[in-house]
């Protein structure tokens, strides 16, 4: 558990300060003070080409009141921008870097040759550090100068006109770097005078300039020079500041909750603290955490001091809703502290919960209210819904309604449509009187649903039951229409062995009723009725007869 917390908060726990019923308040080692620095300036040397192309060899960044100054000044040996050796990883949109160039007319790092003993510098400022208790400059450098010869130094000064007696050095580098861009820092409270070597701090000064100085050796070997990018200048004014560092999701065993799912139990580790400088002891203030809008941690902090870091465990919760969720840490949410920076008091982590993968829903439409009597065809109709994905439907026939197994129907494998669908089953070759139970099996990524039709399909061939001559039929039947295919009219023939209510209806391929040919009571006998499809589109249609003896269906084809 502690190993994971160390990874999250980047440091080992050293003491338990305040045990609570649902939360733990842990003290952590001090974080770097720059995490609280509220005055930050960053130079990425971005350029946008103008109407005449790139500004060359130098374009000063646009910050008001501060400027880059070069010595010697252009167009002589100086510093400029280039777009050959740069890194977008340091500045997200940077396509330039600050580059120590050679003399005209080349202005190109592949061809320039520095004068022997060339010396040039660039200065940026001024910066007001009169109220600073800490100050730091960081930058990236890629030195491609001659090995063991040309050198780059960096530091700060109180004036933009540099000489050894005013240059306070922070560091330097000589020779070609073994790898590309490297990050460097200078602490403006701990510099060395270039002439005397004395320790110097520039904190408290109202005008401070940072500088980089390039010095070539005595030969004229071709060099690529020194490249500077992503210059960041930060300082802390020492005011009171409580900061929300970060929020991380955990499981109850304190392992990281990388992919939370529905039903998981989660908690959070909230990292926050105070800055260096300011008061030794802070007045009381409140810290809380919310899961969406529900408070899962809330405490009054009465023992806070400068430079402290805290890791707080929240109460746990069970994931019950799908969608986007956010855990928010709020430090001093009642604004009781007179802070110098009110823009760093919240931290968040968001997570997404997929909705539960519910089983597909399958309903039989036909046969669903009565036995389906089939002659040459039987039309099976259903509707299926799968909320998250497309389920695969497989249709079978079974001799009973047990086991969810049977013989597959031809054409009976298809994707669900989140709605109604149908299948025409060719029953002409099946044995008279056989009983079949339609069965659907629907599968998706994690579910399988089995659904038998509420009623069976019984094979009864109507043509075989037509009596000779004008006698009464022994059993009811529904003959194939003639002609078939037809355009636009056809004749439908049927017989009744028993009198009673009878209906004869026509449906399209989707099961929609398009015509009612008969809907009344009739005595036993053989009948014929005409069907005119003039107002219907060409295609396959089904006609179904329902009588006290049962239901029969056939298909017919309308051509146009």
Report on this model:
The protein is an all-beta fold. The chain folds into four domains: 2-33 and 239-353, Immunoglobulins (Immunoglobulin-like, Sandwich); 39-236, Galactose-binding domain-like (Jelly Rolls); 361-459, Immunoglobulin-like (Sandwich); 463-558, Sandwich (Immunoglobulin-like), CATH 2.60.40.1930. 1% of the residues lie in helices and 47% in strands. Strands 25, 27, 28, 30, 31, 32, 35, 36, 38 and 39 form a ten-stranded mixed β-sheet that branches. The model is unreliable at 1-33, 49-60 and 464-469 (pLDDT under 50).
Reported by name, the CATH topology of the largest domain is Jelly Rolls
The overall pLDDT, averaged over residues, is 80
Can you tell me the CATH superfamily of the largest domain? Galactose-binding domain-like
CATH class value of the largest domain? Mainly Beta
Class from helix and strand fractions: mainly beta
Task: Indicate the percent of residues in helices.
Answer: under 10%
Radius of gyration: 43 Å
**Global geometry:** elongated
* Number of domains as seen in the coordinates: 4
Q: Please report which band the strand proportion falls in: under 5%, 5-15%, 15-25%, 25-35%, 35-45% or over 45%.
A: over 45%
Separation of termini?
A: 77 Å
Main sheet specs: 10 strands, mixed
Low-pLDDT residue intervals, each spanning 5 or more residues: 1-33, 49-60, 464-469
What's the CATH architecture name of the largest domain?
Answer: Sandwich
Secondary structure: number of strands = 39
Number of helices: 1
């Amino acid at each position: 558990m502690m190993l994971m917390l160390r990874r999250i908060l980047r440091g080992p726990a050293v003491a338990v300060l305040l045990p609570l019923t649902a939360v733990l308040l842990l003290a952590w080692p001090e974080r770097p003070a720059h995490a609280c620095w509220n005055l930050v300036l960053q130079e990425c040397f971005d350029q946008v080409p103008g109407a005449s192309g790139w500004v060359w060899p130098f374009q000063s960044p646009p910050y008001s009141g501060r400027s880059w100054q070069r010595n010697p000044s252009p167009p002589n040996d100086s510093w400029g921008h280039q777009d050959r050796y740069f890194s977008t990883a340091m500045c997200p949109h940077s396509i330039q870097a600050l580059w120590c160039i050679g003399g005209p007319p080349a202005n190109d790092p592949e061809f320039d040759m520095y004068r022997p003993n060339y010396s040039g510098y660039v200065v940026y400022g001024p910066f007001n550090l009169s109220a600073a208790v800490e100050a730091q400059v960081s930058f990236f450098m890629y030195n491609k100068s001659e090995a063991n010869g040309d050198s780059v130094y960096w530091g700060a000064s109180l004036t933009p006109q540099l000489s050894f007696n005013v240059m306070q050095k922070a560091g330097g580098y000589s020779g070609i770097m073994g790898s590309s861009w490297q990050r460097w820092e200078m602490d403006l409270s701990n510099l060395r005078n270039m002439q005397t070597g004395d320790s110097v701090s520039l904190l408290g000064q109202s005008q401070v300039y940072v500088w980089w100085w390039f010095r070539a050796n005595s030969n004229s070997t071709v060099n690529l020079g020194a490249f500077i990018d992503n210059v960041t200048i930060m300082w802390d004014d020492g005011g009171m500041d409580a900061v929300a560092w970060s929020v991380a999701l955990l499981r109850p065993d304190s392992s990281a909750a990388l992919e939370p799912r529905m039903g998981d139990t989660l908690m959070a580790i909230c990292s926050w603290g105070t800055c260096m400088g300011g008061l030794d002891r802070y007045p009381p203030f409140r810290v809380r955490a919310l899961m969406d809008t529900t408070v899962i941690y809330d405490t009054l902090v009465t023992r806070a001091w400068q430079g402290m870091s805290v890791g707080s465990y929240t109460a746990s919760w069970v994931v019950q809703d799908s969608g986007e969720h956010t855990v928010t840490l709020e430090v001093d949410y009642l604004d009781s502290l007179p802070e110098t920076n009110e823009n760093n008091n919240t931290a968040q982590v968001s997570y997404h919960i997929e909705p539960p993968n519910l089983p597909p829903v399958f309903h039989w439409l036909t046969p669903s209210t009565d036995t389906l009597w089939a002659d040459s065809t039987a039309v099976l109709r259903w509707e299926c819904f799968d909320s998250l994905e497309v389920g695969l439907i497989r249709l079978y026939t079974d001799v009973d309604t047990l086991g969810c197994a049977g013989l597959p129907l031809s054409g009976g494998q298809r994707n669900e449509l989140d709605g109604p669908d149908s299948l025409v089953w060719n029953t002409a070759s099946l044995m008279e009187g056989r009983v079949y139970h339609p069965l659907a099996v629907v599968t998706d990524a994690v579910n399988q649903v089995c659904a038998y039709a509420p009623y069976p399909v019984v094979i009864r061939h109507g043509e075989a039951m037509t009596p000779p001559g004008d006698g009464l039929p022994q059993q009811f039947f529904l003959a194939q229409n003639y002609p078939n295919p037809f355009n636009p009219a056809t004749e439908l023939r049927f017989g009744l062995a028993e009198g009673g209510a009878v209906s004869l209806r026509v449906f399209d391929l989707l099961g929609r009723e398009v015509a009612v040919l008969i809907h009344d009571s009739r005595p036993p006998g053989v009948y014929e009725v005409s069907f005119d499809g003039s107002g219907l589109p060409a295609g396959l249609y089904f006609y179904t007869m329902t009588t006290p003896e049962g239901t029969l269906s056939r298909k017919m084809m309308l051509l146009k």
